[in-house]
Amino acid sequence: MVKIFIQASYMGQQVDNELNMYKYMEQSPATHPGRDVIRTLLDTFYIDGPQDKHRCLVHPPLWESVLAFLRRNPIERLPSPVIAVVLHHLFLALDYLHTECHIAHTDIKADNIMFGIKDDSVFTDFEEYELQTVISVPWTFSADIWNVGCMIWDIYEGGSLFTGQDPEFQRYRSRAHLAEMINLLGPPPPSLVIQGELSDKFFSSDFLNQDLLTGLVPLEQRETTLEGTAEREAFLRFMRKMLQWEPGKRSSAKELAEDEWIHRHM
């Protein structure tokens, strides 16, 4: 599998970032089980283009991404046994990145997780590793945990928790994204808000765009697909371990890899 980068200034920085991540991982312990579910770099070389050279990265061959698999599914949501295996591998990979490599991925999404030729899922792409949050709160490894929680809802419940679509401007706006988060989780704790460099843009003592708030609609009211009380409650407990305002209250990747809901379906 060969990944070819176009010769543009921002892509040059992107390939440098990705190469640095792979080189850093090569120096980290290889005995962690999460190392086996992260795509490796086999080689790198240049090819000549019409105007300049292009950097190429060589990786082991893989099948399709979770996103592509999802789009082939008529109901556009992953079945429980499939997502359980995917998430177990993903959390092992994140535990390896967080604890052994001290790397936050920050770009977790369904098209960065690919199925291997032998059915194992593999975590890919290290192009970006700087987090941009809505109110610019300093990031931690738990930013990856939040992103996984949002992705799970997309691929398992068949819809996005947050779109950021602003009804006034008819496009994405940070204020609309933040309002959706408040509608789901309630207002953020003041101790978190004061850390944000952009907090004054959205908060005084309360959220400044009250017209965007529709009232609290928690996960329990949004979940409509699962059958059985025990199954539904286990899934919602699992989701709440990730979707917490305060980074310190989110479970670690290692803890989530051992969650009862995942192991119930593996």
UniProtKB/TrEMBL annotation:
<dbReference type="InterPro" id="IPR000719">
    <property type="entry name" value="Prot_kinase_dom"/>
</dbReference>
<dbReference type="InterPro" id="IPR051175">
    <property type="entry name" value="CLK_kinases"/>
</dbReference>
<dbReference type="GO" id="GO:0005524">
    <property type="term" value="F:ATP binding"/>
</dbReference>
<keyword id="KW-0418">Kinase</keyword>
<keyword id="KW-0808">Transferase</keyword>
<dbReference type="InterPro" id="IPR008271">
    <property type="entry name" value="Ser/Thr_kinase_AS"/>
</dbReference>
<dbReference type="GO" id="GO:0004674">
    <property type="term" value="F:protein serine/threonine kinase activity"/>
</dbReference>
<dbReference type="GO" id="GO:0043484">
    <property type="term" value="P:regulation of RNA splicing"/>
</dbReference>
<feature type="domain" description="Protein kinase">
    <location>
        <begin position="1"/>
        <end position="262"/>
    </location>
</feature>
<keyword id="KW-0723">Serine/threonine-protein kinase</keyword>
<dbReference type="GO" id="GO:0005634">
    <property type="term" value="C:nucleus"/>
</dbReference>
<dbReference type="InterPro" id="IPR011009">
    <property type="entry name" value="Kinase-like_dom_sf"/>
</dbReference>
<keyword id="KW-0547">Nucleotide-binding</keyword>
<keyword id="KW-0067">ATP-binding</keyword>
<protein>
    <recommendedName>
        <fullName>Protein kinase domain-containing protein</fullName>
    </recommendedName>
</protein>
